[in-house]
Each structure stands twice: as structure tokens, then as C-alpha cells.
Amino acid sequence: MEMKRHDKPGSLSPVKIRSEEGRAGRSEKELKLPPEKSLSDDRQRRLSRASESSKGTIDRQDSRSSLSPKVPRKYFTNWKQACDKTKDKTKELLKRWKTLPEGEAAQMSEPGRSEEEKHGWSVHVWTTWVNRCSEDLECLDLEEEQPLAQLSAVQNEKMTLFFTELLDHDRDDVICDQDFDTFFEKLAHFADWSPNSSEFHILLEVKREFIEHFLDPLPNKFAELPYYRRVCGPEAGGLPGRTTLEGWLARWALLLSEPNKFADLPLYLQYFCKILFHIIDRTGVGEITKDALASFYRSVIGLPAKRIEEIIDTAYDRMTSNSYLILDYGTFVHCYINWLMGKNPNGPGQWVLVPSKDSLPQPPFPVDYSALNTEPGKLEPYAPDKKTNRHSVIV
């Protein structure tokens, strides 16, 4: 260390050292470098800034969505993705909606509520699940004594007359296979068909089908139901192979509940129609005349002559539309269909087999057909204020 000359002896002044320390301090300040930044620190800071900016954006979007009734763009994108390329669109949309996070689902439900409050309109969606019954009718939960099908009052009357007048000969309210044998033998005898003829063999096949459908046990899908177990079961007729009037009507109701036209009927009922036509037209002229119909009523149905005289004109007029049509096979098919399926009175089907025993109902107003055949010069013009002796008016 060196001492300055003007300093007093005994005083130490580290002038040189101070200058060196200052120079060294300046050099250290000048040479001091910032700490090195690693690449990982920069990436983390960038990611943190990006996350903060995205979070701010999401917060702004949430605030806008809560204030605005408009649905976010993301909802429509999700809806299109859920429905555009799927076969069952509604089911897939509901599935996607159920799997959404709670926050997003709540966010999507809020705009709908705000828009509903704004406009006053509401949208309701109903979902119905249809349980289709199987062929075995296992899903039917019918009450006690409830049939699956019923006949109308007119159909009940026609099928009851078939049962009582043509099948139940001993009047015990029960029919068996012997009653069917007697009825079909009477038909073959009236038509004069020999046992070797093809018509007779067809008649036998139709008789077997009647016995199978009306005397044999019902299929399991019907036989297990309480109502049909009571009216059509083995104990209904006292012995197996028998049926009562109630079971007869119940089987007809099941049989006629599905067909809508002649071609829908079972094959044996279609053949039964052709058999009846050829039996009534036993002369083979191709049409049923009034005399042939009266002969059928007398020999097969068993009506007395006085009753036949009372009803034959009305019966033939109803079946031929007042003799406008020829009662050939095509016309007879329409009458036969009305006999099976007609649910209203005064139809031509009431005269196919057993005519009704009640008196014929009168029409609500008389129809004067004579004016249609009057010459034009003799026609009297109608005027409300003109007095006339006419009882009908052509409109």
C-alpha cells in the first residue's frame, strides 16, 4: 500500500484500493449478465399465457351466453354432428345429450329458457313407447269375461238363425258333428249330387272345415284367455266336440274380425258361397230365378208356403236391386259378403240363408218411380205456391 504525500503520517488512505475497487465494481457491473433462460421456462410461460387468454375468452363467452338468448355456435355444431350422419337421428341426439358434461348441458339449456321467457312460446316434446303384442297374445291383460271381437246385432241375428234353424235340429242349444252331417246331406239331396260327383266331394271338404273351425278346440293363443276358455272350452258343450250358441257366435266373431273382402275369407267359406249358388241354381242356367229361390226356402230352409209368399218378392227385389240386376254368381257373391259382414239391417245378405222372422221395416218415406217413366209433355212443373195432386217431386 502506498501513502499519499499530503496525508498525515499515521493516517491510512486506501485511495488506490478504492479506485481499484470502483474499477472492479464497474467492471463487474458491466460484465454482469442476466441469468440464462431455459427453453422449457419460455414454453411454460407461453402455455400459461395462452391458457390465461383462452380462459378469459371462455369467461367472456359464458358471460355473453348468459346474457344473450342466442344459442352458442357450438350447440349447432354438436347437433349437426349428432344427427346428420345417423340413421335414428332422435335416438342418437338424446344419447349424445345424456353424455354431455353437466356444465355444457346447463349452458345449452339456458338459452332455451331465456328465449321462452322472451317470446312467451314453449316447446313440449312427448315420447310414446308402443308395446307391440306378439302373435301368442302374451302381452294382453284382458279382464275376466272380455272377448277379443264381437258381432253386431244384425250379425248376431243372422248367425243365430243359422244355428237354430239349420243345425240345432233337436233344439238342445248344442251342436255336434252329426248336426253338420244332417245339414250337408240335405244340401246334397236338394242339389241331386251323387256321392261320386266332384261337387259332393267338395261339399264334404267344406263340411270337415266347418267342423274343425267350430267344434274342435281353439288355437292356444285364444284358448288360454278366460272368456274363450269358458264359452269354447271342453266343458262348454258338456262333452268335447260340441259347442253352444255362445261359443258359435264367439268363433264367428273371431273369424270375421280380420277379413275385409271376399278374397280375405278362408278358402272353405269361399267354396261354401259357390256351393250355395249351384245348389239354388240346380237347373244350371247360370242365374237364380225367383222360383228357384222359393224352392230353396221351402225344401232346405223349411219355411211354410204362406211365409214364402209373403217374403219372396221382397227377398228377390233386395238381392237384385228391384230386378235391375241379374242374380248370377257375381251378384250372389255380393249378397253372400253382406250376409257375413253386413252390420246394418235391410241388406241383401239377410235373404241368403234363413230370412228374418221379424216383420219387414217400412222405408222412412215412399219413393215414386212412376214419374221417371212419364212423358215430358205430361210432366207438371213444380211451384211452391201452386196446388197439385201429386205426392212426389223429382229433384
TrEMBL record:
Record field: compositional bias (Basic and acidic residues): 17-45
Gene3D superfamilies hit by this protein: EF-hand (1.10.238.10)
Keywords: Calcium
PROSITE patterns: EF_HAND_1
Taxonomic superkingdom: Eukaryota
Positions of region (Disordered): 1-71, 376-395
Name of the featured protein: EF-hand domain-containing protein
Species: Pieris brassicae (White butterfly)
